[in-house]
Amino acid sequence: MKVYLSGEIHTDWRSEVEAACEGLDVTFTAPVTDHGASDDCGAAILGAEPDKFWHDHKGAKLNSIRTRNAIEAADVVVVRFGEKYRQWNAAFDAGYAAALGKSLIVMHGPDHQHALKEVDAAALAVTETPRQVADILRYVLTGRLPG
Amino acid sequence: MKVYLSGEIHTDWRSEVEAACEGLDVTFTAPVTDHGASDDCGAAILGAEPDKFWHDHKGAKLNSIRTRNAIEAADVVVVRFGEKYRQWNAAFDAGYAAALGKSLIVMHGPDHQHALKEVDAAALAVTETPRQVADILRYVLTGRLPG
Amino acid sequence: MKVYLSGEIHTDWRSEVEAACEGLDVTFTAPVTDHGASDDCGAAILGAEPDKFWHDHKGAKLNSIRTRNAIEAADVVVVRFGEKYRQWNAAFDAGYAAALGKSLIVMHGPDHQHALKEVDAAALAVTETPRQVADILRYVLTGRLPG
Amino acid sequence: MKVYLSGEIHTDWRSEVEAACEGLDVTFTAPVTDHGASDDCGAAILGAEPDKFWHDHKGAKLNSIRTRNAIEAADVVVVRFGEKYRQWNAAFDAGYAAALGKSLIVMHGPDHQHALKEVDAAALAVTETPRQVADILRYVLTGRLPG
Amino acid sequence: MKVYLSGEIHTDWRSEVEAACEGLDVTFTAPVTDHGASDDCGAAILGAEPDKFWHDHKGAKLNSIRTRNAIEAADVVVVRFGEKYRQWNAAFDAGYAAALGKSLIVMHGPDHQHALKEVDAAALAVTETPRQVADILRYVLTGRLPG
Amino acid sequence: MKVYLSGEIHTDWRSEVEAACEGLDVTFTAPVTDHGASDDCGAAILGAEPDKFWHDHKGAKLNSIRTRNAIEAADVVVVRFGEKYRQWNAAFDAGYAAALGKSLIVMHGPDHQHALKEVDAAALAVTETPRQVADILRYVLTGRLPG
Amino acid sequence: MKVYLSGEIHTDWRSEVEAACEGLDVTFTAPVTDHGASDDCGAAILGAEPDKFWHDHKGAKLNSIRTRNAIEAADVVVVRFGEKYRQWNAAFDAGYAAALGKSLIVMHGPDHQHALKEVDAAALAVTETPRQVADILRYVLTGRLPG
Amino acid sequence: MKVYLSGEIHTDWRSEVEAACEGLDVTFTAPVTDHGASDDCGAAILGAEPDKFWHDHKGAKLNSIRTRNAIEAADVVVVRFGEKYRQWNAAFDAGYAAALGKSLIVMHGPDHQHALKEVDAAALAVTETPRQVADILRYVLTGRLPG
């Protein structure tokens, strides 16, 4: 099963999910999680831009080669909304995955519940912790429940 | 041409776009813009829920009947990011529209430029004002430029 | 908006929905609701079959010309599970609509709740009365809530 | 060839099919067949719900991650209708598979023939025993007939 | 309802179907039924070819502009196999329609039954007369049976 | 590259193509080429039918499990029209493959040229011999021309 | 029938086609044919860019809103290659239309025959004059041949 | 990751990209780059044609078996526009890839910038050198930037 881990890149939630899934037949993919590389890749490879908009534009397009291919190849898309930043790209990925009919799992704290209600409504599961994501993947693949 | 106007519901940007498009062969659609009705429609029609999550869930699903049908029927999807709130549903709609191959026009102020770079990268135009959106629609339909 | 009314054919729930939607811009479609005609159409048009299986088979295929075209053309599919019969064709229609990404509304009494949980989980609304279906369609089309 | 075995979970028909297919190049998938785990997985992983509807809802959605992925990946979908329960999820799966253009094989006893006529009409084979399903798969893969 | 009438062009079965459907909300489309024009259209418009293969090739491609657009736009495709000629284009149209998921109705005499078994197996109805085709369309559209 | 070899089952053209492709990275698939098994598989597995139509119907549907899966999985579909029989299933397969956008190669003698002009017009190559088919596959895969 | 007229914008071939189609049930669409407006629309509406690449980029994206919507809505796409300029956008449109399965008609002079062989190979007709295009459309719609 | 290298066949840019990607998990595909074989394959395999148009036509169709299968299987399509020839097939491939939603990377010198603006607008990256293409693929696959 191919699982794309979208969203927050400033905590180690991805490695927690992966560690908790040890032994399962899952292949994880993710965006580039090095914030600096992700921001500057366009200029670094294709040349500097004096205008911040185009600097960002070139980088965002390069990143979309990775993210769109990964979402399209995924069976399950997990989108994590963290505490910081606007995270519109996470919500964009969730909409993208939903339109493709991917199985969507959302992860966020209770304080974001109301603001994320449209995203949650498109999901097959709304979780709060990496452990819950791993428990879902284990159950989906093996039928075993935690505990 | 069918144009879906997604996003911010607390300013009158939709009526500005529509007024500036007078005379053009455009049909506009939009989400329900009455914030209270949009929040409470699920409970009002299907029955109250003691848990806020399910209250919101029922409402968000009803709203998605309208929004998904409108996005799928649209030729062009305009997504406006305003100054207030998290607006994750706007970004979700943008991702949904992008995955369906819809022509995407984004509208937001310059302060959101960096945070919206992934959304902007999927768009065919990034605008700041309702006038620009109307100018684009007029040009696309008639070939006439402003001024 | 095109709405297909699938399922139970032995009560007048369809006319109740239609009456309660008066004035709305909705086109309703439905299967043939004459039970006898629906059962015997294959033999009546294409010739009698001594074997009940093929008698039913010819009829079911003719009916599927109508139902599949209607589901594929629909924006919203409403599936009503009544009190009587197995109603596997209703559940089949729900699955068919879900796979096509149609907006699904389910209607059934509370006694069927557990048995229909997989169908309900694919729906954007679970209702109990024709009035609720009409209220949803009115809200989706006009933004107006009941009462 | 990937074959999804949908429907009844209270008899050992799946293992009979699999045993009778020994030596064939077939990968079988199936829903979680532990009735208790299937009913309670949502609450067990995502937290208890006081309302039975939402308890079931959370579970049904988790199960759909497994079932939809398996149906979409399958070349052939076999749906078994047993003697007990409403089995609307089996009919739902059949409709879902039909809409995706999957090769559908139905298995049921003669007493369900009339009630399942719409489902049978969408199938490429209507069988009564696991042996017949295995015979079909062997013939499809190798061209060899039984006996 | 849009109905494409494919196949035999040397009898008046199309006008019989159309006459028997008078009053129904059906739009009929068909290939060019002037045999000479159909054979020579390519050369007549695009220039003569010394080689019969290319003469036919240019014509067949022009005809496919009409036939493919009509099949893709159709809700129902009726394919008539007559007594004369090889009629491979009729079988080709049937396969084309089947792959697009169109509702397929086949018409042929009993002597072609065995040779057409694969085509019949993909059809929702196998008829022998224009009257039966019209009866099906009337039933599908109005629920009324003949007689 | 996956290549489906459709059509005539009474000569050894398939083994000629396969022998001439030795060493190439091609996987060939084909219908069941045992005429008797292909005709009687439905009755043999699912039970006898007194009516020849249903006897054939059950068999044709079983065969379509194999053929449709193979066509849908194929990169290239080769359709051979031989000297004998009506071969409507060959033309049906060609139409099916064309509608799915598969690369179509047709093989037939010059005497069938006019009758097959619509099928030829949908093909990317019209051949007369197994050797030509193998030469095409070798060229497509390696860039090497014969001789 | 909807026909998109792509390619060369410096001669009056579009009006010749349209005039020669008078009386036919055809709706023609086209790109913006005012060369200056087409080049500068992005900067005129969205703001000037010091870098020519981004000036062109903004304009090309606005134009693609019109052209992609028109190609996707078209039944037939006609692509004219003129005598001047590189005309890569014409070839791009042809590839875009081909991938969507649109009926493609190409128009160009004999001197471009070899260079356009891949484009011609994807077309259902290769023409040299507006008259031929009109003759094709008339034949496709009415069955009437010229002269 | 599967990467199709389309366009110019008269320089060694493909081997430069491949060499610079050593160690990456990339599978490269390409058209036949032997100009003579590519031009004459149709006649060589299927027989000579006195008319240059049909000579080219038969060859272009054989080549399209390879190129379309490769584009459809690719995750990323790189299109190189060189200094010589019209290269309409390169632009055609770019349009074909864009319509299929493939990630498109374009490579060309600055002198072609204006003429290629529509192609560039559909791309996720516009490059000038094989090194840049390789840097993009490395970044997309590993997150590592050059230098």
Structural class of chain A: alpha/beta
Largest interface summary: A-B, 38 and 38 residues
- Please mark out the parts of chain A with pLDDT under 50 across 5 or more consecutive residues, or reply none: none
Query: H/E order of the elements of chain A?
Result: EHEHHEHEHEH
Distance between the termini of chain A: 23 Å
Structural summary, described in words:
8 copies of one chain form a homooctamer. The first copy, chain A, is α/β, with parallel strands linked by helices and 147 residues long. The first copy, chain A, has helices at 13-20, 35-46, 52-73, 88-99, 117-121, 130-142, and strands at residues 2-7, 27-29, 76-80, 103-107, 125-127. Chain A has a 5-stranded parallel sheet, sandwiched between helices. In chain A, helix 4 (88-99) links the parallel strand 3 (76-80) and strand 4 (103-107). In chain A, helix 1 (13-20) packs parallel to helix 6 and helix 2 crosses helix 3 (52-73). The mean pLDDT of chain A is 97. Chains in contact: A-B, A-D, A-G, A-H, B-C, B-D, B-G, C-D, C-E, C-F, D-F, E-F, E-G, E-H, F-H, G-H. Chain A binds chain B through residues 52-53, 56-57, 59-61, 63-64, 81, 85-100, 112-122, 126, and chain B through 52-53, 56-57, 59-61, 63-64, 81, 85-100, 112-122, 126.
